[in-house]
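To: structure subgroup
Subject: Chain for Friday's discussion

All,

I'm putting the inputs and outputs inline so they're searchable in the archive.
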Amino acid sequence: MPEHLLSVPVAKTAARKGFADEADRLRLSNTALKAFRRIVSAWGLTGAQAAALLGVSSSTWERMKPEGGTKTLSQDQMTRISALTGIYKGLHLLFADAMADRWPVLENSGPLFDRRSPVGAMIDGGIPLMLDVRRYVDAVRGGL
């Protein structure tokens, strides 16, 4: 094989950024919680549903719900909010009307949901199912 074909530069991809760094989580937590509160409101979720999606007890959610104060979210909580934010955004790109905010709480016969609402399925399935739902919404809207 010619030498010049072996030395083709490969574009570097940006390293995937996670939520392991506590300084990053501290910096992003207030914004993430604000986004989560807006999703909870838009989707009309109960306190118990919001708490379950965030992976906290109802009493912890009630303490986190008011704006203000600095609460550093865990890596798990940041991942959950990130997935839900992606779902929210994807739904608003997919649907041009109020269906974007109704879809998460409607019964769904798709294989991921088994006749549960997407919210119910994500509560039962945790982060893995949240990520699956995000990929599902992205695939339906042609974003994959």
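Points worth raising on Friday:
The chain has a mean pLDDT of 85.
Residues 118-140 form the longest helix (23 residues).

D.
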